[in-house]
Design goal:
With about 60 residues, this protein is mainly β. It has one domain. It contains no helices and 4 strands. A 4-stranded antiparallel sheet has the order 1-2-3-4, with no helix packed on it.
């Protein structure tokens, strides 16, 4: 499903000059939103409707 060597993997990407990506940490499963527009960008953890961090357990690599 994913490369066990990578700490972070991109599971969603849309855009060319303005880019939105969802990146998952394969050690913790935490989802992050990365937004880039031109030379600027930002990264923030994704939160659910209750304000808790979104975790995707299926991407956690237990070998790392």
């Amino acid at each position: 499903m994913f490369d066990s060597e990578k700490r972070f993997i991109t599971v969603y990407s849309k855009g060319v000059s303005t880019v939105n990506e969802i990146v998952v940490d394969t050690k913790t499963g935490v989802n992050y939103l990365f937004h880039k527009n031109g030379y600027g960008g930002g990264l923030t953890p994704l939160l659910d409707s209750e304000g808790k961090v979104v975790v995707s357990k299926e991407y956690i690599n237990l070998d790392n």
